[in-house]
Write the structure tokens for this entry.
Amino acid sequence: ADLLSRLRKLGCGVQMAAFRWVTSTADPKQIVGAPFRTIVDHGIQAGIHGDGVHIAPLNPWLHIYFATTGVNSFGVRVNGDQQITRQEALRLFTRGNSWFLRMEDRIGTIEPGKLADLVVLNKDYFKVPDVEIKQIRSVMTVVNGRIVHDTGVAKK
């Protein structure tokens, strides 16, 4: 908490990685992820990112699943009591990250004057059971107001 307070006074933020869902041990006594809950509760500017996009496609839903459940790829809860809500995870992946890019006025939320980047999902992120978060996929992706991915499902 002291370090977070000092960073906040300096105008810094904290960028958290959620990739530990796949690299953690199966020992539930060993806390391996970012202290998501501690950082969010502190109030410092924060964002979440995945890791490995330079070697494989990024599936943000796997990272969101870990941040909201603390459950790793072995099905073991390994992040203590550091889970955050689905709303918090979504905010950290979107609006939270726009601050680190110094683009809060252009990305991160859907509102007039901002780039129209959004996705239409195949499942309701806020209603599916936890385990189904990992199965969420985009059926349509819009970047800068143009459709760049469309499975045709959204039109039915």
The CA atoms of residues 23 and 73 lie 8 Å apart. The beta strands are 14-17, 46-49, 118-121, 138-143, 146-150. Residues 60-69 form the longest helix (10 residues).
